[in-house]
Write a structure and sequence with these properties.
By secondary structure, the protein is of the alpha+beta class. The protein contains 13 helices and 12 strands. The chain has 2 domains: about 190 residues, no CATH class; about 230 residues, no CATH class. The two termini are about 30 Å apart.
Length: about 425
């Protein structure tokens, strides 16, 4: 029965294809919109995720004192992890094979001056080589001018945010940070400051004022103007000397694979508790409010568009099905008079719409692939409001969504055919044959 129903459906599609052309275009447009829009959303979420894990060098897991979050400047020393705690944490992290690398960071803040202009700064001291490893090849060259810290070969130096450097009289290029593509070499740009060194002053953990002079080796663009106006990054040893401490604020931990995050998080919590260490273990997303906001916005928009597309496709298919089926009442009545069952009529009508959906889906997939390839090859960028970075306009390849979009379309098309087909199948044979 299935092969005969398939032949009947195929013959009907060949006869009625002109009537179904508009529906084919609607279905094809739905597939293209679904695939390209989801690919765009997926690509943006991946870039935002990489911005936190790689560019921000947060890694996959963050280890810190429970007192660090929301601590005031007066209470900040209490949240630092001392040498004894660091020794135990280093030992535990080094013993876990799923940990690829980890870096210590010390948060610092105070005033920076060139002798004429003074500004507030807030930044970090970091384990330079470990942070470079977490950032990876695409993000390790994290300056828009000058040298990154790992190229300074251990010298005492500092990286300034783009806007902070301008405030202090430096001539810096008007460019934003861009991640390197595989095989791409970084563009080396120069900058010029009127002073060879800048003086950074801060309160030590004992409450005393301390200051130090540091040359600037590079200019960093963080993408947000407010951060660029305050940002200072330096080697952790220099930050500790400036703060008068041998403590650190937190650890950023990179794993060998992101899938191990829950397992390693649980392991570290057990080990810290067993060692009597009062430490909190967070995942990168626990400290990524912006990522969750972007994810909610983009996915909400996608599902809104998807819902509209599904409703429009379903209504268009149902309208076409009513026209096609009710114009063939006598044909279907003849099939019934020849002994074919109501189920056969329903089955053949469903197959007819399913074939149209497969055809529209195949064309839609080809168009989706062409659009995705074209956008990925174009190299387009745009600068979001409030950002100084040029963000690539790209679309991710999503084979699973491609297949799912066609399957959903076939299911919708089949369902849309059953409503008019059931009405026709319920007619008496004599009534169907006498229909004009």
């Amino acid at each position: 029965m299935s092969s005969l129903a398939l032949k009947v459906a195929h013959a009907s599609v060949r006869r009625q294809w002109r009537k179904s052309l508009s529906t084919l275009l609607v279905m094809m447009g739905g597939v293209v919109a679904c695939n390209t829009l989801y690919g765009y959303v997926r690509a943006n979420l991946e870039m935002t995720r990489d911005a936190f894990i790689r560019w921000g060098a947060r890694g996959h897991i963050i280890v810190e004192s429970p007192m660090l979050e929301g601590a005031s400047q007066e209470d900040a020393p209490k949240s630092l992890l001392g040498p004894a705690t660091q020794k135990e944490v280093d030992k535990i992290l080094s013993a876990e094979p799923k940990v690829r690398t980890f870096a210590r960071l010390l948060e610092i803040s105070g005033m920076v001056t060139n002798g004429k202009t003074t500004a507030i700064f807030a930044g970090v001291g970091e384990d330079v080589e470990q942070i470079r490893s977490i950032k990876g090849p695409s993000y390790e060259y994290d300056v828009v001018a000058g040298q990154p810290l790992w190229e300074t070969k251990g010298r005492s130096t500092a990286i300034l945010g783009q806007e902070l450097a301008r405030i202090l009289g430096c001539q810096v290029p008007q460019v934003g940070f861009r991640a390197l593509q595989p095989g791409e070499k970084p563009e080396v740009r120069q900058f010029a400051c009127g002073d060879a060194e800048f003086q950074l002053s801060t309160l030590t953990v004992s409450g005393q004022l301390n200051a130090g002079a540091y040359p600037v080796s590079g200019i960093m663009d963080w993408g947000i103007k407010e951060i660029n106006q305050r940002l200072v990054v330096m080697p952790i040893a220099d930050a500790q000397a400036l703060m008068g401490t041998d403590g650190v604020s937190k650890y950023h931990v990179e794993l060998t694979d992101e899938k191990y995050i829950p397992e390693v998080q649980s392991f570290l919590e057990r080990e810290f508790k067993a060692k009597g260490l009062d430490l909190k273990v967070y995942t990168w997303s626990d400290r990524a409010t912006f990522y969750h906001q972007v994810r909610g916005l983009l996915l909400g928009f996608f599902f809104f568009v998807l819902a509209i597309g599904v409703v429009i496709s379903f209504m268009s298919l149902m309208n076409t099905s009513y026209v096609n089926v009710f114009s063939r009442i006598r044909e279907l009545g003849t099939l019934r008079s020849l002994g074919f069952s109501k189920r056969f009529v329903l089955f053949s009508c469903g197959l007819e719409n399913a074939q149209l959906a497969v055809l529209a889906g195949a064309v839609g997939l080809a168009v989706s692939a062409a659009i995705t390839h074209g956008v990925r090859s174009a190299g387009w960028t745009w600068v979001p409001p409030g950002s100084s970075n040029a963000i690539p306009i790209t679309i991710a390849w999503t084979p699973a969504v491609y297949g799912a979009s066609v399957l959903v379309l076939v299911a919708i098309a089949t369902l849309a055919a059953l409503f008019p087909a059931r009405k026709v199948a319920r007619k008496e044979i004599r009534e169907a044959l006498s229909d004009l």
